[in-house]
């Protein structure tokens, strides 16, 4: 006769069937990687700059070296039409990273996020983090913002960054020698 006591019943482990993974995560990893390649195909820009920052490029200064030179046939290659080139999607972060408003709480901005797929769950983020950082151009215009970004970015993200754009505005040569100290301070901050 087998007697069961309170303690013997407590030690019995209930055998549960493992939870079946359904949906996107049930797909094999190779297929998910192909989907990630299509999703992260285009290049994105992440601008970590101030609110009023404008990125303007100077037109190149050209000098005509030869005069009265005539060619029988135009041998210059035709330029690609820039109207067909789609500019990359850009997201701008004007506030310092790492400073969040606790009153607002956790609020996911799906429209303003760079790649919303990475925000779905932890497993998808871990699978897409390399794609996210490799296909994004990070744009900075101040050294403090750049240092702050690298302080808060994950080590996986920093290892996979492939493109950085640094916009360095100079003030030109100082007209007075006592203004040279400001030029040196600006140069040292970079």
UniProtKB/TrEMBL annotation:
Q: Whose protein is this, by species?
A: Alternaria tenuissima
Which stretches make up the DUF7730 domain? 24-176
> What InterPro entries does the entry give?
DUF7730 (IPR056632)
* The protein, known as: DUF7730 domain-containing protein
């Amino acid at each position: 006769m087998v007697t069961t006591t309170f303690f013997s019943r407590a030690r019995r482990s209930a055998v549960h069937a493992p939870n079946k993974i359904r949906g996107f995560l049930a797909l094999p990893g190779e297929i998910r990687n192909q989907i990630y390649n299509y999703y992260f195909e285009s290049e994105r820009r992440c601008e970590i700059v101030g609110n009023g920052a404008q990125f303007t490029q100077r037109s190149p200064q050209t000098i005509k070296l030869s005069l009265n030179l005539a060619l029988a046939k135009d041998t210059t290659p035709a330029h690609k039409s820039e109207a067909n080139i789609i500019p990359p999607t850009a997201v701008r972060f004007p506030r310092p990273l790492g400073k969040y408003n606790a009153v607002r709480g956790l609020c996911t901005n799906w429209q303003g996020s760079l790649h919303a797929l990475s925000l779905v769950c932890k497993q998808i983020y871990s699978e897409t983090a390399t794609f996210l950082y490799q296909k994004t151009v990070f744009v900075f215009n101040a050294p403090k913002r750049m240092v702050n970004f690298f302080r808060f970015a994950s080590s996986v993200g920093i290892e996979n960054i492939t493109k950085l754009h640094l916009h360095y505005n100079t003030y030109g040569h100082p007209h007075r020698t006592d203004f040279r100290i400001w030029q040196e301070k600006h140069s040292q901050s970079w």
